[in-house]
Amino acid sequence: MASAFRLAARRQSIPVQIGPVTVGGDAPVVVQSMTNTDTADVESTVRQVAALARAGSELVRITVDREESAAAVPHIRERLDAAGVDVPLVGDFHYIGHKLLTDYPACAEALAKYRINPGNVGFREKRDRQFATMIEVAMQYDKPVRIGVNWGSLDQEVLARMMDANSKAASPKSGDEITNEAMVVSAVESAQLAEELGLPANRIILSCKVSAVQSLIAVYGDLAARCNYALHLGLTEAGMGSKGIVASTAALAVLLQQGIGDTIRVSLTPEPGGDRAQEVIVAQQILQTMGLRSFMPLVTACPGCGRTTSTLFQKLAGEIQDYIRDRMPVWATTFEGVETMNVAVMGCIVNGPGESKHADIGISLPGTGEDPAAPVFIDGRKAMTLRGPNLASDFRGIVEDYVEKRYPRRDPGTAAEPLAATSA
């Protein structure tokens, strides 16, 4: 039976080309991330950009906050190109972006996109002039821009103007409502100004980032209704660990379900020394579990209960996930569509056979007190039963054989989806 729940039709935005990556239009939702290295440290930044790209980040943003950072950008691009890492670099500018882009033309040329925050591009009479300078540089080098509004650095003149008008209204809105609306107005007015200066709409992406889930949903719903620019989604600070993952998933899933969003970032705060690529993996998992894109074969495993006091299925599920992760770099360049494969590793007879039949390939391990046999299902049919101490290696061999027979060999030069660093 077909599900009654379907994704809303994708909002039709104006596509923007960023190097080899298309954002918006009919293109898949793009995953991006941001380094947390000092950009002036070329070696560290190159290393992290490459790691994020390997994890599947299709755009990587770097901070360009001072002269040393701007001077380093072309060297970072050269080192990445020499290493075969062609991921587009996005320059994140605040306060003095106009000066850095004009004083360091090699930086302006090396970047694939500029991120401009209208809340701190300049103040009072300098604001429009400095904003115009950045837009003119973007046009000179044919670069797209993301006009990224952030509630922590909202344009105070826009906010004051709207607060003043609200105070005179017959039915004033709450302060939070006006702040949310001011963010949308700031983004749209800035984009319109950029177009008046000559930057075409197909070189503009907008974002309005907040940290609260419900506010983000409300802001982007309003923003999507007011324009057809491509939209970048993400909480501005999601948080650490499970809190950050849950908050990002809750917010982005609602918007993506509504057809809103052309590119996403999951802004996780890493543990000290933690892997920055985790935010890429989470973004990929959000898109894949919603059925929007495929990056890595999915492994379904039951959570365990009193019927599964043996840890056999847990160990096998982990081994299969590790095996798929290790094999994917080879599979992805050899077999077309392998990233869509579903594998089930189940722990007992209650749901094991049923879940295994729904997967492309699945195994139902014996639960407590069950016969020590593990039926294997391939494409919905029972294919064989495994027994004995080599069950794990036998099943890995079956998975490898399935990939070889099920997925056509990829034509040389055909691009695959970027790979996640771990199983989705």
From TrEMBL:
<dbReference type="InterPro" id="IPR004588">
    <property type="entry name" value="IspG_bac-typ"/>
</dbReference>
<dbReference type="GO" id="GO:0019288">
    <property type="term" value="P:isopentenyl diphosphate biosynthetic process, methylerythritol 4-phosphate pathway"/>
</dbReference>
<dbReference type="Pfam" id="PF04551">
    <property type="entry name" value="GcpE"/>
</dbReference>
<dbReference type="InterPro" id="IPR058578">
    <property type="entry name" value="IspG_TIM"/>
</dbReference>
<dbReference type="Pfam" id="PF26540">
    <property type="entry name" value="GcpE_C"/>
</dbReference>
<dbReference type="InterPro" id="IPR045854">
    <property type="entry name" value="NO2/SO3_Rdtase_4Fe4S_sf"/>
</dbReference>
<keyword id="KW-0479">Metal-binding</keyword>
<dbReference type="InterPro" id="IPR016425">
    <property type="entry name" value="IspG_bac"/>
</dbReference>
<dbReference type="GO" id="GO:0141197">
    <property type="term" value="F:4-hydroxy-3-methylbut-2-enyl-diphosphate synthase activity (flavodoxin)"/>
</dbReference>
<dbReference type="InterPro" id="IPR011005">
    <property type="entry name" value="Dihydropteroate_synth-like_sf"/>
</dbReference>
<feature type="binding site">
    <location>
        <position position="305"/>
    </location>
    <ligand>
        <name>[4Fe-4S] cluster</name>
    </ligand>
</feature>
<dbReference type="InterPro" id="IPR058579">
    <property type="entry name" value="IspG_C"/>
</dbReference>
<feature type="binding site">
    <location>
        <position position="355"/>
    </location>
    <ligand>
        <name>[4Fe-4S] cluster</name>
    </ligand>
</feature>
<feature type="domain" description="IspG C-terminal">
    <location>
        <begin position="299"/>
        <end position="399"/>
    </location>
</feature>
<dbReference type="GO" id="GO:0051539">
    <property type="term" value="F:4 iron, 4 sulfur cluster binding"/>
</dbReference>
<comment type="function">
    <text>Converts 2C-methyl-D-erythritol 2,4-cyclodiphosphate (ME-2,4cPP) into 1-hydroxy-2-methyl-2-(E)-butenyl 4-diphosphate.</text>
</comment>
<keyword id="KW-0004">4Fe-4S</keyword>
<feature type="binding site">
    <location>
        <position position="302"/>
    </location>
    <ligand>
        <name>[4Fe-4S] cluster</name>
    </ligand>
</feature>
<protein>
    <recommendedName>
        <fullName>4-hydroxy-3-methylbut-2-en-1-yl diphosphate synthase (flavodoxin)</fullName>
        <ecNumber>1.17.7.3</ecNumber>
    </recommendedName>
</protein>
<keyword id="KW-0408">Iron</keyword>
<keyword id="KW-0411">Iron-sulfur</keyword>
<comment type="pathway">
    <text>Isoprenoid biosynthesis; isopentenyl diphosphate biosynthesis via DXP pathway; isopentenyl diphosphate from 1-deoxy-D-xylulose 5-phosphate: step 5/6.</text>
</comment>
<feature type="domain" description="IspG TIM-barrel">
    <location>
        <begin position="15"/>
        <end position="283"/>
    </location>
</feature>
<comment type="similarity">
    <text>Belongs to the IspG family.</text>
</comment>
<feature type="binding site">
    <location>
        <position position="348"/>
    </location>
    <ligand>
        <name>[4Fe-4S] cluster</name>
    </ligand>
</feature>
<dbReference type="GO" id="GO:0046429">
    <property type="term" value="F:4-hydroxy-3-methylbut-2-en-1-yl diphosphate synthase activity (ferredoxin)"/>
</dbReference>
<dbReference type="GO" id="GO:0016114">
    <property type="term" value="P:terpenoid biosynthetic process"/>
</dbReference>
<dbReference type="GO" id="GO:0005506">
    <property type="term" value="F:iron ion binding"/>
</dbReference>
<keyword id="KW-0414">Isoprene biosynthesis</keyword>
<keyword id="KW-0560">Oxidoreductase</keyword>
